[in-house]
Amino acid sequence: MQSLRRMSHFVKPYWKASVLALLLLVSVVAMDLTIPRLTQRIIDEGIARHDLTTVWTTALLMLGASVLSALFMVANTLLAVRVAQYFAADLRSALFRQVQAFSFGNLDRLQTGQLLIRLTSDINQVQVIVAMSLRVLTRAPLMMIGSVILLVLTSWELALLMLVLLPLTGGVVWFFIARMQPLFLQVQRRLDKLNTVLQENLAGVRVVKAFVRAGHENARFDQANVALTDQTIRVMRFMSLLFPTMTLLMNAGTAAVIGLGGFRVSTGALTVGAVVAFVNYLLSTMFPLLMLGMMAGPFSAAQASASRIVEVLDSVPEVQDRPQARALPQVVGRVALENVCFSYNHDGGEPVLNGVSLVAEPGQTVAILGATGSGKSTLVQLIPRFYDVTEGRVTLDGVDVRDLPLRSLRAQIGVALQEAVLFSGTIRDNIRYGRPDASDEEVIAAARAAQAHDFIMAFPQGYDTLVGQRGVNLSGGQKQRIAIARALLVQPRILILDDSTSAVDVETESKIQDALDRLMDGRTSFIIAQRVSTVLNADKIVVLERGQIAAEGTHAELLASSPIYREIYQSQLGDGGGAHV
Q1: Residue 419's domain is classified under what CATH number?
Q2: What pTM does this model have?
Q3: Which domain holds residue 487?
Q4: pLDDT of residue 146
């Protein structure tokens, strides 16, 4: 319940429509409660006395009350749907903005598949309850309260039956609601798993086909699918007991009222019309409980979904602006790592980086080499604060990057990663993603520098060529070059290329490097590369081994002093490598 109450502030902007919907609902209940009383009048004053005038006038009043009830109900439904839709839209926006504020650390724990389900299925579950709250969930207690009052006014002796029936029925409903919430939570978790398997398979369908693993993926999907199906069946089987139980209680109450009421009629203590009215009011009292029982499933599902939504909303981004954060008036580009330690697990696990100290002077090109898992990518991700250091500090122009606003810090840094991520849209839109106001001339200049202009112009639509989902209609090298052009277009003071030319050939890489040498003159660059030929002319080459700096210096210095670097160099270029210098 607490999680659902947390959702209520998303309804507050629409309180006028909500109040009007509730007022219309009160009118619907008033009209519906009038019908049994008018039925009693027809029987006792019309039929019993053979007064057709009373029969016809009362019947017309019943018809009018029914028409008004229907009109009020239509208006209530329209308002309830409107409020629920706006509520869901605002909640989706809040959740999406929260995800945008997350650091890499948050996203490492909350997987993509889980976030997709929370932004879609979970919000839909809560949206249903918001709409129902302005309709069934409010109408039911109003109808029940009004019916109980009229039951007492009709016959207080028969109303004593409700002292047993109402608590019993209410207890049954509460039992089902309490038991179903954890069951629905398991359903949503298994839906998370199914969505994750599906997303991984669709994203990696080419790998699946290349390794002929369709059977394995089918088995994975079937396992998740069967688990979801079994859990859903378990919930539905449990829910299927509710309606018969509620119907049994309602029919038992009706039988008791007719039996006792019939006896009271035979003694002259009650009229037939009063008994009929009492039965109608009894049904009006029990039917809301039946409706609440039927809503137990969606309500429990909404509670489970609300708790999952609140988990995301309450997640605090690990990387945030400090209160005293101030932007640098002018960025020179000196980057320093001072005794930096970093661990992805903040529970004292083995650090990825341990005691790393490194200085990149303004305008220098720093190349980082090392085996897979040595911490190369982690090191450069600390500069734009994709992660925050565990110990030590990273500084820009002598200022701790944690004391700089994230927006101003990252505006000075251009990043091109090994896995080039492109968005649906045109090639032009992708290149100027970081600078939407860039002119076409600037876009073309960045593309030329990244050696992308020629292959772009080879497309019939040129820069207006639509990029498929995740750049599916482009090769790996083409995507990497567009990503490099995107990084260059922001004209950063600091450029980070994380193995961003791994998918291009040596000749193209050489051309890209020549262009970068011209464009990045006076700018600080960090280059992670697998090929030694890429970094031979770097001002400083850093060799990482197991999260620590094993060697540092120029190519010539390392060739003379570092066995690790010499081994890497000779394995790739051999004795003929000197020609590349």
Answers
A1: 3.40.50.300
A2: 0.71
A3: 415-491
A4: 77
